[in-house]
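Z., the sequence and structure:
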Amino acid sequence: METRAQITLLDRIGIPTTFFWGYLGLLLFMIGDGVETSFLSRLFVDQGFDQSQVGVIFTVYGITAAIGAYLAGALSDLWGSRKVMAAGAIIWLVLHLVMLTIALPTRNYALLAASYGLRGFGYPLFAYGFMVWLIAGSPKERLNTALGWFWCCFTAGYPVIGSLLAAAFLPVLHPVGLLWLSWALVGAGAAIALLLIADRTGRQPLAAPEARDLKSILLGGITIMFTVPAVGRGAIARVINTTSQFGMWVFFPIFFTQQLGLPIEQWATLLSIMMGANMAAVIVVGMISDRWSWRKSTALFGGVFCAVACVVLYYTLLVASSNFLAIAAAAVLYGVAVAGYVALPPMMTAQAPERQGQAMSAYSLGAGASAAVGPLVGTLFIGSLGLQGVVWIYAALHLASAFLCLSIRSPGDGRP
């Protein structure tokens, strides 16, 4: 039973007390999901698969993650968020087990692509299902703070703490042992959240009975991108936002270890530094955006800054790989730059205030799609252009997103 002091402390820092165990469960789940980020592509290469084959696996994963992110909100309306989270956890745990016990030991490429690729449905259904529950059940006057804690737990787990665990325990547990640890962490996080969240809102469908039309719920987030073109442009910008990030997570560990000859544990540490900087920068860039302009800050700090930062990171690794401080500084620069797109959600919802849920579905679809587009760009061009050419494509996409963001005008020049 919670004491009054505990309730006051949680309230003071902006965490709804009824969702406390959900935050803890999300953190553990995302730590488990993020453990693999720094080494999994290298593990697949070590199993005898080439970079293009590995790129295909991660592209399939990205596609299913995009679909899962989009469906989390729609299925919460139809089933309730708790069932959506449970479905995501079951998908993740079962398919991860198939990968560990059958696909990897037998080096069966088709089964590996299917088990890991389809596992992509798991984390967005769980995490974004919880986010929808949080939005529905939190006090409206503290919703932004509650969502801030959501993203803090999400990013802290995936990939910051997950990558730190990998860096610390890879020499002891080795990749497969760490994948078993991730399975245990995901299971523990799911159990804590599903069994202990006190709020009742997400235990039943969120949509009113008369509004539970499957077709309109599932298609609304897509149709709004055409009926309100600014939302569509925002969704494309959201795809680009983390396209380079997801591409780097697939191809940079291979480049880091095979071409530069550096230990994978060092890449895991670098990744944690990068995303730790991102966590801090999200708050600062958000404050700047509110005081200046959503669209201008997103175009400058997101589009232009990201284009420069991903090129700087690649060439710093190439010419100064022995200087860890230099490459860590470049990683911090990139992590800060990725935070530059933080104002995209309010930019998009401001275009259709009466359809904010559908605008957020479009945003979530873009977020999930970036996990597919990043590896896909690398898969298509790394053979002909090399990693250097792929990085320049990422930079060009970021510059294109700057123009997209500048075109999304809201009341008050991006500050409705």
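The chain has 17 helices and no strands. The chain has two domains: 15-206, 221-416.

Let me know what you think.
H.
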